[in-house]
TrEMBL record:
It comes from the Bacteria. This is GTP cyclohydrolase 1. Keywords: GTP-binding, Hydrolase, Metal-binding, Nucleotide-binding, One-carbon metabolism, Zinc. It catalyses: GTP + H2O = 7,8-dihydroneopterin 3'-triphosphate + formate + H(+). Zn(2+) binds at residues 111, 114, 182. GO terms for molecular function: GTP binding; GTP cyclohydrolase I activity; zinc ion binding.
Length: 223
């Protein structure tokens, strides 16, 4: 019989998610970023000391503070709703009615199971129902949801849901192709493999529209 620790390890090693939303506590923002940095700094110091590192060495003495600032201000900054980009939209005055595709958006995220990087590309598309969104806002939405401990399936869904809400249409799609360093650098150590996830809404569920999108991004994967 598998025990609880083995069960949790199996979830992490197989990259399963237990929640469609990022599992945040209700009190996640009761303390300031500066307070979080101080707490994380002490935790990183403890980890390094436990590993046997000499924290008096000039090369490493600043590492706890650097890591703490990086966690709060950078790679996990997307957890803070105050940093959510404003998804400004505009009337589609030029009546463009075809698919708009923004491809090869850089994805830098972090696997929530091992806190190792996820690095890849997102390809996002929508068909306007009367509103359009600035191209850079699509990149910023991807970046915002990527900058948190993540599961790639969830990230793909969150990008689509955010754009659907902003544009007032179901006709949104996203495909992400990314490498997980928790697979590439540990465990099975397969440096060649990557993970492809997709979410298709509205008209993109139609096989012909879906194929057109996949042709634009030159992806041969069948969905």
């Amino acid at each position: 019989m598998i025990n609880n620790e083995e069960f949790l390890d199996e979830i992490g090693d197989n990259h399963f998610s237990s929640n469609a939303k990022n599992p945040l506590r209700d009190d996640a923002f009761d303390i300031t970023d500066e307070e979080k940095i101080e707490k994380i700094k002490k935790d990183v110091e403890s980890i390094l000391q436990t590993l046997g590192m000499d924290l008096t060495d000039d090369s490493i003495k600043g590492t706890p503070n650097r890591v703490a600032k990086m966690f709060v201000k950078e790679i996990f900054g997307g957890l803070n709703p105050a940093k959510q980009p404003k998804a400004s939209t505009f009337d589609n005055n030029y009546k463009y009615g075809e698919m708009l595709v923004e491809k090869n958006i850089t994805v830098y995220s972090t696997c929530e199971h091992h806190l190792l990087p996820i690095i890849g590309r997102a390809h996002v598309a929508y068909i306007s129902s009367g509103r359009v969104i600035g191209l850079s806002k699509m990149n910023r939405i991807v970046e915002y949801y990527a900058k948190r401990p993540q599961v790639q399936e969830r990230l793909t869904m969150q990008i689509v849901q955010e754009l659907q809400k902003a544009l007032g249409t179901e006709d949104v799609a996203c495909v992400i192709d990314a490498k997980h360093l928790c697979v590439n650098s540990r465990g099975i150590k397969d440096i060649e493999s990557s993970t492809v996830t997709s979410e298709f809404g509205g008209k993109f569920k139609d096989p012909q529209t879906k194929r057109e999108f996949l042709d634009y991004i030159k992806l041969d994967t069948q969905f």
